Amino acid sequence: MATFKAMVVEKTETGTKAALADFDDANLMDGDVTVRVEYSTVNYKDGLAITGKAPVVRRFPMIAGIDFAGTVESSSHAAWKAGDKVILNGWGVGETHLGAYAGKARVKGDWLVRLPDTMSAREAMAIGTAGYTAMLSVMALERHGLSPAGGPVAVTGAAGGVGSVAVALLSKLGFSVSAVTGRAEEADYLKGLGATEIVERAALTGPVKMLAKERWAGGVDAVGSTTLANLLSMTRYGGAVAACGLAGGMDLPTSVAPFILRGVCLYGIDSVMCPLPRRQEAWKRLETGLDRPKLAAMTREIGLAEVPDAAAAIVAGQIRGRVVVKIG
Q1: What's this model's pTM, rounded to 2 decimal places?
Q2: How buried is residue 130: exposed, middle or buried, by Cβ count under 10 Å (0-12/13-18/19+)?
Q3: What digits encode the pLDDT tens for the residues 109-135?
Q4: I need a labelling partner for 79 at 20 to 30 A (CA). Which of 66, 71, 155, 204 fits?
Q5: Count of alpha carbons within 13 angstroms of residue 234, beta-carbon side
Q6: Domain range spanning residue 8?
Q7: How many domains does the chain have?
């Protein structure tokens, strides 16, 4: 196909605007692999890019979408051939390199990961960057030495994409999981994913104490700001928190007390430029470490034209779980 549908972000006099448009594959950017995109997803970062709420897009016009799953159409890269099933997360796609909300993408072969044998392209994007980031967070906690015997762990923003997958992953590993959420109506949903306790978001959004009562052995934080600061202050001696989100803000109003008086470690989780071996490990773990029925329960599907509405909803904190975008 010479042209295909794409969700294109354009710069305007008042900001940016995203709209469905016809795009010519001759205008795709340089790369040694061309992929027929089958599915993408809506992550919080996609929401920021589509709505223009943050300067995610650095080049205009830009096809939005930071991740995809699809089939290689053509390749001059040694690792890939036509027909291969692949996944892409990050690497500036949808920010500086034309992205995933389109019928085709041309990218560097070094950016791709092979789709696990037992996973469909739809399932891969039901996981998406949010779920892959959740697994990177869990892996960081494991490298620190956290185990179910060490005590309960907290997941903030638990009803969102990263949080939902993190709850399911940690639960399957045997952890007692405290799901922190501002949406009390999602309690049954979170318990269905494996949460053993539902914690009101307000418990972690009040004034930050240098050291609060020790409550959790560790946690996965997708919120940042005051929530992360409070989580650190409540983490037990020798514990660890994996920080991977900023929905609550980029500031961190904490002190050195949790780190030097309780030996707490804060691990920063980057999914965009994460080295290939760790990406491959994460997707291998996701193939077996995430219950497919739970993944299905947290996922709904939309079409490409519905992306702007979903983007606005995810930025407003109104999306539960994962949203798959059917493209191909």
Answers
A1: 0.94
A2: buried
A3: 999 999 999 999 999 999 999 999 999
A4: 66
A5: 23
A6: 3-115+298-326
A7: 2
